[in-house]
Amino acid sequence: MSKQAIVAGGCFWCTEAVFRQLAGVSEVESGYIGGSVADPTYKQVCSGATGHAEAIRVTYDPAVLALGDLLDVFMGTHDPTQLNRQGNDIGTQYRSAIFVTDELTREDAEAAIARWNAEHDGTAVTTVEGPATWYPAEDYHQEYWDGEGQRNPYCLAVIPPKLAKLRKGFAGRMKSQDA
Question: From CA 176, how far away is CA 68, in angstroms rounded?
Answer without folding.
Answer: 21
